[in-house]
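User: For a teaching handout, I'd like to show students what a predicted protein-ligand complex looks like in token form. I'll give you the sequence and the SMILES for calcium ion. Please answer with just the structure.
Assistant: Understood, here is the input followed by the structure.
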Amino acid sequence: IPAMFLRSVLLCGLHALAVAGLLTEPSADSKGKLERGSCPLFWYDSGTDCYKYVASQMTWAKAELNCQSLGANLVSIHDAGEMNFITTLIENFDPNKGFHWIGFSDVHEEGSWMWSDGSPRDFAFWLPGEPNNWDGPSCAHLKFWEVMKGGWNDDVCRSAYSSVCKLRKTCAYGL
Ligand SMILES: [Ca+2]
Ligand SMILES: [Ca+2]
């Protein structure tokens, strides 16, 4: 059985349990408290997907491979609510709110930004003036300012930052 197919089946199993209410617990509440919910140990439930904070600083590619070794990908972000959830997750683990890789990059072709988990490009939260690394492959990380909650900046992919992985509960490939 192809590994990708097997992974989809496992994810579908997790999803099915969650839908059946067998594993349902409260997820992050309005105060920003993190809950494991229906996610594996050390992952946190947004109500839709599972997220893991990775403190170790790695290049973008190593961070993505680390997520893949856990059956996940670097986090993709699809709306303001998800952005807020990830901000809360980072605040819980890193009060200094340093730089954190997300799964967005234009490593394949300059200017063609895509998510490493293959999800649609339906949301962007670039900081003013970004992305500005026009001269080659760049990777996106979260960056926080005093005056605003945070946004995305592109940087050279070999920089070493902390990261966030996302385990999608939804079934891939129509399974
Ligand atoms: Ca670029
Ligand atoms: Ca930049």
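For the handout, you might add this sentence: The beta strands are 44-45, 50-58, 73-74, 100-105, 114-115, 139-143, 151-155, 161-167.
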